[in-house]
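Hey,

Quick one before I head out. I ran the complex with NDP overnight. Inputs first:
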Amino acid sequence: MKKVTILGSTGSIGRQALDVIHAHPETFTLYGLSAHSSEEAFCGQLLAEKPHRAVFSLPLPAVPGVELAFGEEALLDLAGDPAADVVVLAISGIAALRPLLAALKAGKRVAIANKESLVCGGDLVKIALSKGAGELLPVDSEQSALFQCLQNGRRQEVEKLILTASGGPFFKIKREELRDITPEQALRHPTWSMGRKITLDSATLMNKGLEVMEAARLFDFEGEQIDVLIHPQSIVHSMVAYRDGTVMANLSRADMRLPIQYAMTWPDRIPSPARKLNLWEQPELQFYRPDMERFLALRMAYDCLKAGGGYPVVYNGANERAAELFFAGELSFLGIEDSVSYALEKYTNRPMDSLEAILETDALSRRLVDEFASTRSFV
Ligand code: NDP
Ligand code: MG
């Protein structure tokens, strides 16, 4: 029986991780839950799931049978709790970085959905992994696909990692028309149902930019060895091209419960609540090369990965802040890309060798986006 803690249980990934646990009462038992601001949803989960431990960002009324605590220190304590076997990291944004480091230091298996923490905390995560017994198992569908395809050969035999991207809802729209996109339009994702921020990131392709850096961190490859391929149907989740010309691909229906479960059970595979893929029922599978001129977000990500240091942190932090401003109606859709580009231009690089350096750089990138937004009326 594996004891599981879900950090970010009220979110899209968190709720699906709970589904996976419910589907396998003989394999998993719930240990801990955490959430941030969704008070009603979290209280509902505590009453229904009765975890041993729970952490919320603000005080909540007591729930009988649940050890309830509040705030970031309590969250870090839960992340590193020796009693749990697997920590599902489903918190969104850079807020997941400290819990990630705490879980790895405590030697946990981390089923990691959060990509922002990997992009920003690259070196610190590497050190935490090398020092202890902690392990990282990717949940992000593309990274899970790469992880699975990479099990079919040796590292030095790999020519390319090929990340697929749905292209988001505006893949066929001309750049000029993107200017007037509203939050409502940006939240209509064609193939996946996800949290608000990642859905927006998919529309701007910032998500794919983050994933290029995430893949580089997780599997230790350079940007030159990572390609992006637009695949609107989201059936092929990513591929690995080997030097003999063989391409290994990972296919399934677009259902996050599959990669969540695999990260929890690896190296075993068990039946999943996800519907099976019948290829004959699928529309034609299509693939296109992305237009790097149009999707500045992707090109900036490759540049940040190459430049290293704090650039990936600025890319992420500026994008997180720009997303907040976009949802608040204070920045246009293209303003997201423009403000990230502005923050990167203004930034002077420095090494990211401590958590403080990362958090300072993150804060700086947010200030730069605010500066960008305040100097323009509505951009
Ligand atoms: P959601 O916005 O749906 O959920 C985020 C969760 O994190 C919620 O439980 C939220 O709590 C919690 N949270 C938010 N801010 C904080 C904070 N400052 N401190 C502690 N907890 C916090 O996000 P998703 O589930 O969509 O995504 C989670 C992560 O997984 C992201 O990094 C995303 O990129 C990644 N991912 C998601 C996929 C998906 O299909 N959704 C696919 C691949 C990766 P509350 O609701 O109480 O505020
Ligand atoms: Mg993904």
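The chain has two domains: 2-138, 140-254+274-296.

Talk tomorrow,
K.
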